[in-house]
Amino acid sequence: MSAAGLEGVVQLSTHVIQIPLPTSTLPPENETNTYLIHSQGECLLVDVGTDHPTTLSQLVNYVDARGNSRIVGLVATHYHHDHTAGLLILARSLQVPVYVHELDLALALREMKRLSLPLGAEQFIVSAPARLTVGELEITLEHHPGHTHGHLHVLIPEDEVVLVGDHLSGFGTVWIGPPDGHMGSYYKALDALVHQHYAIAGPGHGAAIHDVAAAAQALKHRRSQREDQMLAYLRENHYSAAQLVALIYGNSIPPDAIWVAEKTVLAHLQHLLVRHKIRRSYDASTRTFYYEPTSS
Fold this sequence. Notes:
By secondary structure, this protein is of the alpha/beta class. Helix content is 33%, strand content 26%.
């Protein structure tokens, strides 16, 4: 479906529309989903990851053409640039707030400052409340750290829709890595999605997910399998994080995405350390930490 120059627009539910926009995100992906939540002539935009003037104009024109002429606010599920690049530009233009969780506020501002922002735009970024109202629609902003410390899930209970940022993906997996990401917290975020029984999840990237619990369980299982794989390698020999990345991924990852694999492996190692499944030692001669299991 094409709308006002925008491609791939999908009506997810009565009040929620998914709008994929071209962004500078991780390959092979090249789009980030923006979500339009609308009711009674008001609307909220969630995640606008482009600062391209033409695309932003197309987005605003699309909202106007639907009759949702009053954008009352903007929400960032987390601070990463492919979800926030256009938010302060729109906020300054529309004179509306940008809601970001307080734990992501400083980092969101840092990301946005890298852009050529309109004078005074910074004043529009504020700490996200627990609830927002759009028209007659109640929206809940739940704090679920994992991908970042201030990651939010946006819940639209009336539609049984949850917008999950980068905690689920329509393409398969997501990455979790320090210093932003924490694997134990991410598992809790996935557990919450399993138990909340929402019908549709709107991910940051890719198509909507219509079996939310199954998708969350599958991702948690995949992460658990990765930790089992790492433990199996460490039972054979002690390895550094970089060595584990090479063992696990080989040549399957493009060079410009290796850093994602490295961060994800570090997040798994931290999770295993906290659970006392492994221990680490420092080799001063190579300035490297090596890991080994606490028991065979």
